[in-house]
Amino acid sequence: MILEVDNIHTYYGESHALQGISLNLEEGETVCLLGRNGAGKSTTLRSIIGLSAPRRGRVTFKGRDITGQPAYRNARAGIGLVPEDRRIFPGLSVRENLEIAEYSRPGVTRQWTIERIFDEYPMLGELAGQDGSTLSGGQQQMLAVARSLMSEPLLLLLDEPNEGLAPVIVKQIGALIDQLSRTTTILFTDQSVHFALKHAQRAYILEKGMIVHEASSQALINDIETQHRYLSVA
Ligand code: ATP
After folding, report:
1. Sorted alphabetically, which keywords does the UniProt record give (predicted)?
2. Domain count within the chain
3. Does the chain have fewer CB atoms within 10 Å around its N or its C terminus?
């Protein structure tokens, strides 16, 4: 098991956002966290990487208890987060946005270099000198994912990678997830079941800070009742 989340409770002030979330990922899996607005998807990712420390419960990454460990240390240990708002650094070029994120874990051979990123995603290469904040939403999402690769993540957390993107771009993000899932463990969030079904093997559904359902993507696609009860169905 690369990630085990055991009964975590996370608060914003007095607001009890996560009320006992448990989930786990085997190495190599791609799993989706589903749920409507405010269900707790982002908070779950933030709790795993250490941006919102759980008050109770435990997060274990590669067999080590990392609960409450600061995000920068978790990033160095191999957890990458692409936040919902992408956080492209304005005033830095596409290349600089990538350079600033470069980190080599001791003893790990680099898989992702800027050259490889420009090779695999030529669109980013063409935009290398452009200020990252002037990119379109889809281009920024590609850059945000590429930037996370610069620290060689073993576990990639993607928070609503499709939010606000046109259907044609959503397809590209899906292809990117499919490609990365061959070598990386991925946990991503989404609001509707369709994208999850195409790109994840399993899904957890959250509501009001709790996991209310867990199923293989295949089982979920046939479970219209669960979809209607807990998800935004297009
Ligand atoms: P969305 O799709 O809207 O991001 P989500 O499923 O990711 O939804 P979270 O953002 O994790 O949900 O929010 C879970 C709960 O925590 C919600 O009730 C939300 O209002 C609350 N919350 C989130 N961020 C904060 C914050 N910074 N301060 C206070 N409450 C917050």
Report:
1. Amino-acid transport, ATP-binding, Cell membrane, Membrane, Nucleotide-binding, Transport
2. 1
3. C
